[in-house]
Design brief:
The protein is mostly helical and 475 residues long. It is built from 20 helices and 2 strands. It has a two-stranded antiparallel sheet with strand order 1-2. Strand 1 and strand 2 form a beta hairpin.
């Protein structure tokens, strides 16, 4: 039923680029209309055939609901790319669809300026719709599943299962309102910074969703505008903060201590990343002007750390060190409850707090040292969950890299593409798939593997891995 509902939403969304295509006197509107009819037929059939009131979900149903919904909308969203013929084959369409909905921003298109505007808008709509789904998933579903320490957001653990559906409805309305408000503000700021309305809309949807799809092959470097760089940097950052944080601060005027600790830590980390990169670029004479170094460092560091993937310059030209530091940025991620991907800030906070505890215990073995994040204490279950998540995360990177190498990719490109996709940051640290490259040169099997990597990273690894175990299906 839930999958059918989301498929119907995607079917309705396809009518938007269809209308734009008709306005542009193009011929692709009929393909979008066909895709919409197929999506609505399948979606409404599933919804009506299985319509019932959901009062309680088991863990097994929670995992299946999450994975099934995401897989179904990724498949259905690939239809316009297939029917319009802009994708060479199904692997390309699947890759582009998965990239948009998971907020990865990696693309197989190499001539964006010559694509129909309806296709460009559809890519951006995927980012926008995926962004909302990502936040609802992170705030409402992950705590219920207890993945990667997300139990820390489960304030009513005793009756969370019974109240899941009311919570989803309550959260979704507020999340959508805040999300749309950010998109509108970004749209207006970009329009008045020099973009036309169409480009501003596409980039606003992609920026707040921290996706990184652009309407230009050169990404944001095409505009060569300090003002546009500043606007997009700001909204990438805002998109990487918990959307519930805005609601708590603005409406309730009651800042939750954990979210505050996470945001403060994130700000400090970004300050270190940007400051260090700026000074390095300035002293290394890549940019003799300090403010120019700060501009490019700020934009590209925030872009990769938030897993957006925009580029205002080819940062791989900054020397060998750039590959290392941007790999670190990609594995950092934004805040939990945001549209950002990757490992996320709060998990790194748990790791650092746990390391600190053991360092103190090594000197004072009889001292009781809690694992604290701000004013909240993490219990052993949460710490264990975080370390299991990190182990699964890096183990997945190893396995996926091995599979790509097995099918012909060299090690550097295989590792770079996997990290770019599983962290949902998009560009890799290899030239061919870097900030000025794309994924079009990869083989079909590579694109299928990387599409899986995007979904794996977006669903926080464990959601997919649990379903792949034998014990899950014995229940």
């Amino acid at each position: 039923m839930v999958s059918g509902f989301f498929m119907s939403i995607m079917g309705l969304a396809m009518l938007i680029p269809a209308g734009l295509d008709m306005y542009d006197n193009q011929t692709n509107w009929s393909y979008f209309l066909n895709s919409s009819i197929i999506s609505l037929f399948l979606g409404l059939s599933l919804y009506l055939a299985n319509h019932t009131e959901i009062k309680k979900l088991s863990l097994q149903q929670g995992y299946l609901l999450t994975a099934g919904s995401w897989i179904s909308i990724i498949l259905i969203s690939a239809l316009p790319f297939i029917q319009t013929g802009v994708s060479a084959d199904f692997s390309d369409a699947l890759f582009e669809s998965a990239s948009g909905l998971t907020g990865t921003g990696a693309t197989i298109f190499s001539d964006l300026e010559n694509l129909p505007r309806s296709i460009l808008l559809w890519r951006s709509l995927l980012c926008g719709l995926g962004g909302i789904g990502i936040v609802v998933f992170a705030i409402a579903i992950l705590p219920f599943l207890g993945i990667g320490g997300m139990q820390i957001f489960q304030h009513e653990s005793s009756d969370f299962n019974d109240k899941l559906m009311p919570k989803l409805s309550y959260l979704a309305k507020r999340i959508i309102f805040i999300y749309l408000l950010l998109v509108i503000c970004c749209l207006l700021a970009l329009r008045f910074s020099g973009m036309n309305w169409f480009d501003a809309l596409n980039h606003a949807l992609s920026t707040v969703a921290t996706c990184g799809f652009s309407t230009k092959d050169e990404s944001i470097a095409f505009y060569d505008s300090a003002t546009i760089d500043i606007v997009i940097t700001l909204f990438m950052f805002l998109g990487s903060l918990p959307l519930t944080y805005y609601y708590v601060v603005i409406i309730n005027k009651n800042i939750h201590s954990f979210r505050t600790a996470q945001v403060v830590f994130y700000l400090k980390l970004l300050f270190i990343y940007i400051g260090g990169t700026t000074i390095w670029l300035w002293l290394s004479d890549y940019y003799p002007n300090f403010w120019t170094a700060l501009r490019f460092a700020s934009f590209n560091v925030v872009s990769i750390t938030t897993s957006t993937g925009y580029a205002s310059t080819d940062y791989l030209l900054w020397g060998n060190l750039s590959s290392v530091i941007f790999l670190i940025f990609a594995l950092t991620g934004g805040c939990t409850g945001s549209t950002s991907g990757s490992i996320k800030i709060f998990r790194w906070q748990v790791v650092l707090a746990f390391v600190k505890k053991h360092l103190i215990s090594a000197v004072e073995p009889n001292r009781v040292v809690p694992v604290k994040i701000g004013t909240l204490t993490s219990d052993n279950k949460i710490v264990s969950s975080v370390f299991v998540f990190l182990s699964a995360y890096f183990f997945s990177i190893i396995i996926l890299t091995f599979l790509l190498a097995l099918f012909g990719l060299d090690f550097d490109t295989a590792l770079s593409t996997v990290i770019g996709c599983i962290t949902n940051s998009g560009p890799g640290i290899e030239k061919s798939i870097g900030p000025v490259g794309n994924y079009s040169g990869l083989a079909e099997c590579h694109k299928y593997i990387l599409s899986f990597a995007m979904l794996l990273g977006r669903l926080e690894i464990m959601t997919i891995l649990v379903i792949m175990t034998r014990s899950f299906w014995k229940q």
